[in-house]
Design a protein that fits this description.
mainly alpha
């Protein structure tokens, strides 16, 4: 490996080994790496949203899954839930400063995904053609 490659590639130590117990990133990555959490963060990056606005903005998410996702994100300090004393109660969600600090990372991931989706699609098609009995999809 060239020196220049080493400089741009992050060095990551493995987690879960006996000599390196769970270092704490697994728990955080489980939350922020969840597809629904990422999509909620993307939606809230544009500003404050009501529950139904979030649901309409995230294709395929059920009411129950959205409820669980925003509660988990609130618990983790990434989202603030505000209840207004109206009848019926109005509830809004917005990113906290911590949640906002994730948006540039999520954008980088989204940009990378868009840049490489065709290549990944071709790789999947090639793999599937080479392994027709494989159930991985």
């Amino acid at each position: 490996m060239s020196d220049s490659h080493i400089q741009v590639t992050a060095s990551l130590d493995p987690c879960g080994l006996d000599e390196h117990p769970d270092c704490g990133i697994r728990d955080v990555l489980t939350r922020v790496g969840d597809k629904w959490s990422v999509l909620v963060i993307v939606e809230l990056a544009s500003g404050i949203r009501r529950f139904r606005e979030l649901q309409r903005g995230i294709d395929g998410i059920s009411q129950r899954m959205l409820t669980l996702t925003v509660r988990r994100l609130e618990r983790d300090g990434l989202v603030t839930r505000t209840v207004y004393p109206t009848v019926p109660a109005q509830v809004t969600y917005e990113l906290t400063a911590l949640g906002s600090s994730l948006t540039h990372l999520v954008k980088q991931l989204a940009d990378w995904s868009l840049d490489h989706r065709e290549t990944i699609g071709r790789s999947r098609a090639h793999y599937d053609a080479q392994h027709p009995d494989n159930e991985i999809r």
